[in-house]
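Suppose a classmate hands you a notebook page containing two proteins, each written out with its sequence and a corresponding row of structure tokens. How would you begin to make sense of it? This section walks through that situation. The first entry is reproduced here exactly as it would appear on such a page.
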Amino acid sequence: MKTSENTILITGAASGIGLEIARLFSQCNNKIIMVDRSAVQLESEAAKLHNTVAIPADLTNEDELSKLIQKVKLNYSEINVAILNAAAAYNHTLYTTEFDQAYAKSEINTNYLANVRLSHALEPLLSKKKEAAIVITTSGLAYVPNLEYPTYSVTKATLHSFVLGSRLQLQRNGSNVKMFELMPPLVDTPLAEALNAPKITAAEVASAFMTGFAKDELEIRVGDTENIFQLFLRSPQEALMAVNGGK
């Protein structure tokens, strides 16, 4: 995929991986449509970058999601790349009073359903372009869950399955839209602040993504995600234990 002269939608763009990816693409002569629920932070960060548009939207709100889709179709029909990166994570333990069904629903809506809805809504628009892509951010936890973030892990595993199925279906449909999956390890962002474990920076993830994107690496496993993947191939149980402290 080319890394310049694109029009790119990025969700979860006000901070973390989404913001770092927006920064890199902004430096490479692309138009960036930045989306996030944190309106003030989004607009502040977008103002620092070249050739960007900020669209505040809560992707768990059906009305706001529909308005976002319509706005993109009407005002940014030249879009050829969608990077679906928004995520929510709730630290809790299964089978305890910590479980919050309302928050679990929010994680599922943000991490999975919004991405599915956006993929289906934008694919017809993207498919009209000579070079087009959908990028979905999952996680190394798509292979094995982290017990401190069980619902988050489930949503990423489900997204991984959705990406695999989508990639095959798009090929069978004759679509020219490439389906990428970005699979970071533990990243030093607010989502992972409760975890006391080695983390890499969002900037490192963004840099690795740009390299893989340019090379058409459809599954971009960053850092320790590659190690977990290789361990999972050898022994799913060992991979599970490695992610969860060997307990």
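The notebook's second entry, a different protein, reads as follows.
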Amino acid sequence: MTVDQVRTVPAAPSTRTRLTRVLLGRDAAITALLVAVVLVASLTVDNFSTATTWYFLFLDVFPILLIALPMTLLVIAAQIDLSVASMLGLSSVLVGALYENGWPLAVAALVALVVGAVGGALNGFLVTVVGLPSLAVTIGTLALFRGLAVGILGTRAVTGFPSGAQDLVSAHFAGTGIPVVMALFVVLALAFGVVLHATPTGRLVYAAGLNAEAARFAGGRVGRLTFWLFVASGVMSALAGVYWTLRYGSARGDNAVGLELSVVAAVLVGGVSIFGGRGALPGVVVGVLLIGALRSALRLADVSSDVINVVTGVLLIATVVGPGLVARARGAARRPGTRPSAGAPG
């Protein structure tokens, strides 16, 4: 790449620009849609606005929120990790198998987190050192981690975990429907948000998504960044697996099958570009809550799971395709009498 080519690469948006987009742009529209869904559901769906409904909604979306934190940074950096649900299942199985063999639960959970870090490091090594595309790598490790999980326990489940630990993940703040575990998410979200939106590391994440080669030419250590993002994804997936095991009181090899699709959908609905270089963490959090609230309302309205999946899919397509159509319309409006060509980018 020549110096002239590097000069044509768009710079990563500043923190102020990103916050402006959060407050006035697409994230504001997503927030407005969440408010509209909540208001309509509260008025038309019995029991939706109760503390109990919101309590279970938060418990349901908690693992998605955890995994979405590193996934947001990965997608902004033009990478993806589809092995997250399999790592969740593997960590759940490890907790169950170790506890069943007499290990203290805390030690078993710690081992699961270490295995999550190792699995993430494997993904990062194959992507950054071997040079394989993250989509292909994580599809492979998706099958690998799930195969290990099923191989360890087979078709059986481990149950009988300490009631104190199960009560802890299910506890809620007195007088509210907010689970105590949401406090952990708030702390982690603040940490990831500061890194992404207020540090040089975050600026490198955006720069890598816009043009990784230019970011390297400018001195950014894109490979090291990508490696540690995959490690973070593995650890957060393993943490979600520990939570999953204690919340449902069961360690199984098929825990959370398909959850990676919910995570990716939430990230994209939250305004992160699948092509990298654009997005913000607050929008992703709202996206997770939007999908969770919509699915909860439809379940309470006795809508079948197939229809719920269709509605979720339509929402995802609309949020991915919509911005491109709006950009085309704005471009056409700025050039009266012209039409965007069929091959013009959206």
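A careful reader of the second entry would note: The two ends are 25 Å apart (CA to CA).
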